[in-house]
UniProtKB/TrEMBL annotation:
<dbReference type="Pfam" id="PF22458">
    <property type="entry name" value="RsmF-B_ferredox"/>
</dbReference>
<keyword id="KW-0949">S-adenosyl-L-methionine</keyword>
<dbReference type="InterPro" id="IPR023267">
    <property type="entry name" value="RCMT"/>
</dbReference>
<keyword id="KW-0963">Cytoplasm</keyword>
<comment type="function">
    <text>Specifically methylates the cytosine at position 967 (m5C967) of 16S rRNA.</text>
</comment>
<dbReference type="InterPro" id="IPR049560">
    <property type="entry name" value="MeTrfase_RsmB-F_NOP2_cat"/>
</dbReference>
<keyword id="KW-0489">Methyltransferase</keyword>
<dbReference type="InterPro" id="IPR001678">
    <property type="entry name" value="MeTrfase_RsmB-F_NOP2_dom"/>
</dbReference>
<dbReference type="InterPro" id="IPR054728">
    <property type="entry name" value="RsmB-like_ferredoxin"/>
</dbReference>
<dbReference type="InterPro" id="IPR006027">
    <property type="entry name" value="NusB_RsmB_TIM44"/>
</dbReference>
<comment type="similarity">
    <text>Belongs to the class I-like SAM-binding methyltransferase superfamily. RsmB/NOP family.</text>
</comment>
<feature type="binding site">
    <location>
        <begin position="256"/>
        <end position="262"/>
    </location>
    <ligand>
        <name>S-adenosyl-L-methionine</name>
    </ligand>
</feature>
<dbReference type="InterPro" id="IPR035926">
    <property type="entry name" value="NusB-like_sf"/>
</dbReference>
<feature type="binding site">
    <location>
        <position position="279"/>
    </location>
    <ligand>
        <name>S-adenosyl-L-methionine</name>
    </ligand>
</feature>
<feature type="binding site">
    <location>
        <position position="307"/>
    </location>
    <ligand>
        <name>S-adenosyl-L-methionine</name>
    </ligand>
</feature>
<keyword id="KW-0694">RNA-binding</keyword>
<dbReference type="Pfam" id="PF01189">
    <property type="entry name" value="Methyltr_RsmB-F"/>
</dbReference>
Length: 437
């Protein structure tokens, strides 16, 4: 079978929607085997992520149009992918979507299958009828379908931020993520100039001091990336390390370090210091090494594969001047970049993660030196993983207090939460603690 952007997208969607494969792994695997042009790779990527992102909305559109059971397993993914194109991709004419869907149905259907007739009939009926949405009176159901987020998440957002802000956040989370990069501290002016020369139109970040926003992707294929002049990191993620006040000679512990984005950022601030990077997954520490090599800070980084909840068995009390706990979390701040997170997480996950986050803080906080700084961060915006963790940690550790900090262009009294619609960045939470004097 000749592989096209659409057949790759359909194969990927079948394995993601039916076998729960990871979209990025499955798509990369399928793309690697197919050798498509860059434009076709981009189309396949858009079809896969867009269809997953809008899954709830797209399934709702099928209501009332599907009269028979969709027995062949390519049928539903193909219908969802086609409606996604009709509704969201202005540049593709509806007729082309129907023709391509027809071809795919013939390719993927069994011999003598009537699948292509079913696809044709349903898509034509959808085009005639148009979009349907639930009654606006039911705010949760309406927003859940319109913006394609599970009901519990819509309810959670409304409860914590109100209806108006929730609408803004959900709409913003469905926009494409920005192309943020962090420039290495060395040669920043020159790197900025090179980015301009290469046509990436860099714009300084409104948030982080060392970050810039590029006009398009593809930076990882440039020599600037390969030579470690910059790294791919969201501007809100870059703020976390900026919350520390570095002297430059400190021993630093990065308790949850892989893939090492923040480890290398810390190391760049340590001309004569050192960072010990932990992670529970030994394999993932290879990524920390690769990052440190590429960013030319490998001599300042050592790694150790341990559970941070056992860090106090491996290191001495007061050994580190600075500690970062960039904790495992639900990733609710990353919904724009990782469309599946919205469907895989549950409210119970937030509670389970809080326990792990508190346990990690419990076992690393004793390693902080007098006058040291402890920064806790997550790429989640939930209350359970952030404000509640801080409150409970402070309650059980009265020798710690929140500490004011400045990070990039922002200042905070001790806790900073960046919601995803405020700057169009990832959602992030940062808290800084110090030992009471
Ligand atoms: C949010 S990610 C860290 C991202 C990283 N700081 C960066 O900037 O690239 C959380 C990491 O914590 C690791 N992790 C999860 N549980 C852990 C534990 N109990 N001890 C140490 N690491 C853990 C995960 O494997 C994951 O790599």
């Amino acid at each position: 079978m000749t592989k096209t952007a659409r057949s790759i997208a359909l194969e990927t969607l079948m394995s993601v929607l039916q076998n729960k494969s990871y979209s990025n792994l499955s798509l990369n695997n399928n793309l690697r085997q197919a050798k498509l042009s860059v434009a076709d790779q981009n189309l396949a990527t858009n079809l896969v992520y867009g269809t997953i992102q809008y899954k709830i909305y797209l399934k709702y559109q099928l209501k009332g149009l599907v009269k028979t059971k969709l027995t062949e397993n390519y049928l539903e993914p193909l219908l969802l992918m086609s409606i996604y194109q009709i509704q969201f991709l202005d540049k593709i004419p509806t007729r082309a979507v129907l023709d391509e869907a027809n071809k795919l149905a013939k390719k993927f259907g069994k011999h003598h299958s009537a699948g292509y007739r079913i696809v044709n009939g349903i898509l034509r009926a959808f085009v005639r009828r148009g979009e349907v949405l639930p009654n606006k009176k039911d705010e949760v159901e309406y927003l859940s379908v319109k913006e394609s987020f599970p009901k519990w998440l819509v309810e959670y957002f409304i409860k914590n931020w109100g209806l108006k802000k929730t609408e803004k956040m959900l709409i913003s989370l469905n926009q494409p993520a920005k192309n943020s990069v962090r420039l290495a501290l060395k040669d920043q002016k020159q790197t900025f100039f090179q980015l301009k020369k290469l046509g990436f139109n860099p714009e300084p970040s409104a948030l982080a001091s060392d970050s810039v926003i590029l006009s398009h992707g593809g930076i990882v294929d440039t020599s600037l990336f390969k030579e470690g002049k910059l790294t791919v990191q969201d501007e809100a993620a870059s703020l976390v390390v900026e919350a520390f006040d570095f002297k430059g000679d400190e021993e630093v512990l990065d308790a949850c370090s892989a893939p090492g984005g923040k480890t290398v950022q810390i190391a760049e601030h340590l001309p004569t210091g050192h960072v010990t990077a932990l992670d529970i997954h030994k394999k993932k520490l290879n990524l920390v090494h690769q990052n440190a090599e590429r960013m030319d800070v490998a001599d300042k980084v050592s790694t150790k594969a341990i559970d941070a909840r056992k860090a106090d068995e491996c290191f001495s009390k007061g050994e580190f001047a600075k500690i970062l706990v960039d904790a495992p979390c639900s990733g609710l701040g990353l919904l724009r970049r990782k469309p599946e997170i919205r469907y895989s997480k549950t409210k119970q996950d937030l509670v389970n993660l809080q326990k792990i986050q508190l346990d990690i803080l419990e076992h690393v906080s004793g390693l902080l030196a007098q006058n040291g700084e402890l920064v806790y961060s997550t790429c989640s915006i939930s209350i359970q993983e952030n404000e509640e963790v801080v409150e409970k940690f402070l309650k059980s550790h009265p020798n710690f207090e929140l500490s004011k900090f400045k990070a990039g262009n922002l200042t905070s009294n001790g806790m900073l939460k960046i919601l995803p619609d405020s700057y169009g960045s990832d959602g992030f939470f940062i808290a800084k603690f110090k030992l009471r004097g």
